[in-house]
Every structure is written in C-alpha cells, then in structure tokens.
Amino acid sequence: RGPRPFFFLLFIFSFFYFPSLRFHLHIPLYACGLQVPIHVDAASGGFIAPFTAPDLVWDFRLPLVKSINVSGHKFGLVYAGIGWILFRERGDLPDGLVFHVNYLGGDQASFTLNFSKSAACIVAQYYQLVRLGHEGYKAIVENGMAAAAYLREGLVETGKFSVVDRAHMPLVAFSLKDSSKYTVFDLQDRLRGRGWIVPAYTCPSGACDLAIMRVVVKQNFSMDMADMLLHDMCSCLAHFDAHPAVRPDTSPSHEMPHGGAVERPNAAAHWSKARRLLHSVHQIGVSAQHRHTGQKTSGVC
Questions:
Q1: For 11-42, how does the pLDDT look when each residue is reduced to its tens digit (9 = 90+)?
Q2: What percent of the chain lies above the pLDDT cut of 90?
Q3: CA-CA distances (angstroms) from residue 240 to 38, 181, 183, 245?
Q4: Predicted local distance difference test score (pLDDT) of residue 236
Q5: pLDDT at 131 over 60
Q6: Helical residues (DSSP H) of 158-222, grouped into ranges
Q7: Which of 94, 140, 161, 194 could cysteine-pair with 174, CB 3.0–4.6 Å?
Q8: How far is CA 272 from CA 252, 265, 293, in A?
Q9: C-alpha 253: how far from chain center
C-alpha cells in the first residue's frame, strides 16, 4: 500500500503534478532503507497527457510509481464500463488481489470481476488502440484541444462568463460573472430545451459558493458544433436579460398620473406556481431542490 495521488483533478480540471510528493517521501525514507510505493489515479488525464504533454513526468518514469489506472471511456474512446490498471512489475500486484479458479480445466489466475459482464468494452478498446495507434489518439486529442480553446474564446467574448479551467484538457469549465438575475442552473434548464445537456453544479468544500458549468469536448465536437452551442447560449442569455428569473415582487405600487394606482398582476400566485415548478423533479429524475437548499450533488462524471 502507498499514497494514491490523483493525476487529473475533476473539479479544477487540471493535471496534478506530484514529483514534490515523490521528493518528500523518497528522501526521508531512503535513509531508513524504506520505499513508499505510489499508485497514480490517472482517470481521464491518462489518455490526454501522453499526447499533449509528453514531457510531463507522472508515470513509470518515476521510480516510486508502481501502478497506474486510467479510464477507457471518454478519451479512451470507448463507451462507459471500461477501465485499466497497469503494474510496473508482476511482483507489484498483491497476491491478495488475485484469485484462482479451476472450473474451466486447470488453474487460472484472475485479477478481474470474472464472468460478471460482457467483454464488449474490452474488444472495443482493443479495436481503437490497434486502429488509431499513438498518432491517431494524438490527432484526436489535439483537435479536441483546439475546439475547446475556440469555445473558451467564444465564452469570454460574450462578456458574461469566467473560464475556470486551466486548459489542460479538451474540457471547458466556466461560471457566470453575474448571477443576480439568473444562475447557471437557470441556463442549464434553458439549454436543455434547445437540446443541450450541459452539467451545472457547485464546487466542493473550499469553493462551495462557486457554481459552474462544464462542457467535455469529445472527438465529435466540431468547431461548427461549438458555434451552435455559443449561438444557443447567447439566445438563452438574451432571454434572461429580457426576462430575469422570477422573483417575488415586493416593491410598492406605482401611481398613475391622475392619482389612480396601477393594479398589478397576481404576483403571489405567479411566484407560487414558479416555486412549485422549481421544486419539481426533472424528467431525468434529478431533484432541483439542491439548487436552493445548498445540498450537494455527487457522482459527477
């Protein structure tokens, strides 16, 4: 067992560079004749960094790194359900994680969930690796990075958004500069009506007040699609600027020039209906109550 640093951090959307961890572990313990093995949780970054930052040393080039896991879905270009773990040497795989079966004739060592699911994901990953190779994956990642940069520029040009990711990945994360009239959750709902599903959520402890949206730029996300998304986002923003999110109207009634009061619509009934809609359950089955109660979501993919 040993430390388990994360190579790609989800909420800040960046690579976490940890040679300093290696330094602080290796130097003090080396004098004692001890070595602390490191397992790297490369997540999505394991299919990005080798092609965008080949000089970034995070893998088996660090002597203390004994194992690495990486996601095959997303940037591995395989549908959800596949992940990989690599060990530096056979001896780095603990015997306690290996079990043996003999019901197929002879002894067979297995380090997996044996016969628990289809092997379709494995076949698909094998096909992609053989078909694309290093250069193919590199070209796809570079195209994704270019499309992500284009989308970032478009969001900044609107003057409405602050980009919060660090441009380490083909992924764009952003927040609203002004949330007084509407929030990213309002924008998320409006975009859904135009066919876009863009995640919106609050950040974890330490940045709980920051609500962000995130766009993952996959291989099929073209510049044209980025233009479509920007166009629809601008349309949504224009709608919200003209029709701010509904709030109770507590201002005093205006007086007519001749002294008669303007009769307001039934604001209380309108607000009550809007509040019921806000607290309703979305068609995807996720409650919207966490947006105003401060509850956190989990399991963001």
A1: 555 666 555 555 555 555 555 666 778 888 88
A2: 43
A3: 49, 8, 10, 7
A4: 95
A5: yes
A6: 184-192
A7: 161
A8: 19, 13, 17
A9: 46
pLDDT for res 2: 54
Number of H helices, E strands in the chain: 7, 11
AA letter at 36? V
Amino acid at 105: G
pLDDT of the residue at 119: 83
The whole-angstrom separation of Cα 237 and Cα 231 is: 10
Give 186: exposed, middle or buried? Use CB within 10 Å, 0-12, 13-18, 19+: buried
- Three-state DSSP at 130 gives helix
Asked if residues 150 and 223 have their Cβ atoms less than 8 Å apart, the reply is: yes
CA distance 26 to 37: 10
Angle at 82 between CA 225 and CA 1, to 5 degrees: 125
Contact 44, 74 (CB under 8 A): yes
Using CA atoms, how far apart are residues 181 and 242, in angstroms rounded to an integer?
10
Measured CA to CA, the distance from residue 56 to residue 17 in angstroms comes to 8
Query: Over the stretch 230-281, which tens digit does the pLDDT of each residue have?
Result: 999 999 999 999 988 655 444 444 444 444 444 444 545 544 554 454 444 3
pLDDT (average), residues 54-73? 89
Mean pLDDT of the chain: 78
Q: What is the DSSP letter of 199?
A: -
Which residue blocks in the chain are alpha helix, DSSP H?
Answer: 19-30, 49-52, 120-157, 184-192, 223-242, 267-278, 290-293
Q: What is the pLDDT of residue 152?
A: 97
Least Cα distance to 141 among 168, 170, 165, 167 occurs for 170
User: How far is residue 146 from each of residues 55, 123, 169, measured CA to CA in Å?
Assistant: 20, 29, 10
Tokens of 120: 């379709």
